[in-house]
Amino acid sequence: MPDPIFSVPPGLPRLRxxxxxxxxxxxxCPWDLEQDFATIAPYxxxxxxxxxxxxxxxxxxxxRGELGDLMFxxxxxxxxxxxxxxxxLDDVIAGITTKMIDRHPHVFGDESRDKSAAQxxxxxxxxxxxxRGPAGVLDGVALGLPxxxxxxxxxxxxxxxxxxxxxxxxxxxxxxxxAAELAGAAATADPAQIADEMGDxxxxxxxxxxxxxVDPEAALRGTNDKFTRRFAHIEARLADVGKTPADSDLDxxxxxxxxxxxxGK
Length: 265
Hints:
It comes from Palleronia pontilimi. By secondary structure, the chain is mainly α. It has twelve helices and no strands. α9 (about 170-190) packs antiparallel against α10.
């Protein structure tokens, strides 16, 4: 006999029914029944990164599946909230629909569309500030963001009220200052001091990226990919002569790295 789940209309209704069944106290999945907001949150972050990864690689077939995985995360959290009596998925959908209409008066209202993307971004941020109400300048920047992304957002918030270097050269000078302080900390061999100064240097680098119009998270992600490609080249060339990186030395691997660099890898 077919499972009653197949009598539910396909699409979002069936997905919601699947989620409810997974959390059914009597017939649900034991693993799902043990989960809560905190235990599911890391999966939500992971799925968002997998969406970004598929987009970066242009893998549209994978993107379809990854978007489904990310959508399921929203359904999962909404199910948990409904069980706790906080809200349900309909409330979530209604909330985001209203927000998008309110945030786009130049599309859904009588405000002129004759403005730049930069002005629309400024208007969006102003609307968010009004919604937050009286708050500190840095309030509301999510703690769960990647550290470089959060650094950039904190700096942007501070810059809006004038707390910012006016010239890029000043930011570069700050990086040199922080690098010198990190070198001094390294000489002390104090792990806490080294970590503190390393954080200051990374924060200054994120600030320079912002001044140069570069997304620091995306820049580092690109360099990670480049490192992966070039190291794979090292492994492949070593394998051609029956060796592995562990059998090689730095000079040999560095020469192969430079080969990859010259080849544009």
